[in-house]
Amino acid sequence: MGERGKRNDGPIFYGWFILAASVVIELFGIGFGIFGITTAYPYLIETFPQWPRSTIFLPTSIIIVTVGALGPFVGWLVDRFPIRILFTTGALVQGVGLLAFAHVHTPLEYLASSVVVGVGLAGVTILPNQVLIARWFHARVGLVNGILLGATALGASISPALITRLIEASDWRSAFGWMALAAVVPPLAATLLVVRDRPEDLGLRPLGVEGGDGAQSRRTMYSSARDVTARVALRSRIFWVLGAVIFLGGMPCYSHNKHLLVFLRELGYGAVAAADYKSFLFLVAAIARVVFGWLADRTDRRRLVIATVLLIAIGYPILLVVPRHPELLPVSLLLFGAGYGGLLPAIPILSVHYFGRRELGTILGAYKVIYDIAAAGAPLLTAALYDRTGGYTAPQILLTSFAWVAVALAVLFLPRGDGEGTNAGNGEMATATTSGMSVR
User: Fold this and answer.
1) Average pLDDT, stretch 269-289?
2) What's the whole-model pTM score?
3) 31: which residues sit within 8 A by CB, 6+ positions away?
4) Are 179 and 98 in contact (CB under 8 A)?
5) C-alpha pair distances (Å), 118 with each of 30, 59, 372
6) Report for 12-16, 123-127, 138-142, 219-223: range of highest mean pLDDT
7) Nearest-CA neighbor of 130 among 149, 105, 151?
8) Which of 11, 70, 173, 380 has its CA 20 to 30 A from that of 363?
9) What is the distance, to the nearest Å, from the Cα of residue 425 to the centroid of all Cα atoms in its chain?
10) What is the domain-level CATH number for residue 223?
């Protein structure tokens, strides 16, 4: 491969440009896609008062189910074909779906548009970006994943305040046109101009591999000698325990991020004020994703997972008293947002920690099915309980119980790691094997 294949000769490792491109794809592709749609929900309720609440909230669930169903297939594609093709196709298809939303008049049109958005989003969502980043970074894995997932939350933070003001100045149909533009143009530009599938395409090695970067030349942080197949991972206890924690801890997160605007509007908050509170929630989540990712490189990852679900379990039920004590709303959003922000980065970090990179795309695709079921089911469950009980109290109590079960599972059944994110290596996979990674 030559001398250039042994180390990074440039002043800046090209992987950081790859990370920047993934940030753009996540921020605009998801922030102005699915999170933009949730911002329009209060206006759709006003436009279509005859539609039940469960119908109004169905699009995001359809999108998530579509993305989740395609997750294993996308993981398979990512392991075998250029990611640039997936990003390009996904961005264009999602743009078509968002434009279709601007012209809906019937529930069938409304839901069909959701399917199109879901198909497109599958190509630009977290899974392919995480695999791309894992190829370029074998060191600082927690930090780069935190930055990547922080971009999703940052997009979700920017879009409610911006789109709400846009709708207030015009109408929600016009806003969907601008959302389509934002979800297509920046991700497409980043993909075509910057993204390259693997370091080897440029004669480089991943950051953290011996000779991969002058400043960071050292033994890779994670072992590759004990990587396992997806089949072995799926037959392990660790996979399913972590999946249960993600599912139960994620249920209140995925309900709250879809229903928060409507919840606040029903409490008497104005459109802009409610949107600003939702933006605050996701700003906290964005910061938390970077911080928790940074910490994951330096401390016991199991304890971080426990901390995230504990923050969710403490912060979410405060909503039950917010109608009588509105001054507690920022406290709830701060605690809950920190936990919500820390939960998602745990998936790729612990997947690499326990299972390695051999079939990471397929393993993350399987996890994506789990948390997408939670993401799709939670807002629908909340809407159904709202239609049945006439309020948010019942779903908030139920989802709080889910969060506390997640805490118990993480404490009792997630295996303890070595406690040192920077001194991992073969010991990580050995720990996983002796703590339940075996197929017995």
Assistant:
1) 91
2) 0.72
3) 151, 152, 154, 155, 156, 157, 158, 159
4) yes
5) 11, 9, 12
6) 12-16
7) 149
8) 380
9) 26
10) 1.20.1250.20
Query: Residues with Cβ < 8 Å from 381, sequence gap 6 or more?
Result: 251, 255, 395, 398
Rounded CA gap, 115 and 65, in Å?
Answer: 9
pLDDT tens-digit readout, 74-127: 878 888 888 999 999 999 999 999 999 999 999 999 999 999 999 999 888 878
Rg, the chain, Cα only: 21
Rounded Cα distance between 282 and 344, Å, is 13
Long-range CB contacts for residues 272-278, cutoff 8 Å, separation at least 24? 272/161, 272/164, 272/165, 272/168, 274/42, 274/164, 275/39, 275/160, 275/161, 275/163, 275/164, 275/165, 276/160, 276/161, 277/329, 277/333, 278/39, 278/160, 278/161
- Give the whole-angstrom CA distance, residue 45 versus residue 81: 42
Cα–Cα distance between 186 and 407 in angstroms, integer?
Answer: 38
At which residue do the structure tokens 């004590």 appear? 325
Q: Which domain holds residue 46?
A: 3-437
* Domains in the chain, number: 1
Q: Could you give the angle at which helices 126-136 and 346-355 cross, rounded to 10 degrees?
A: 50
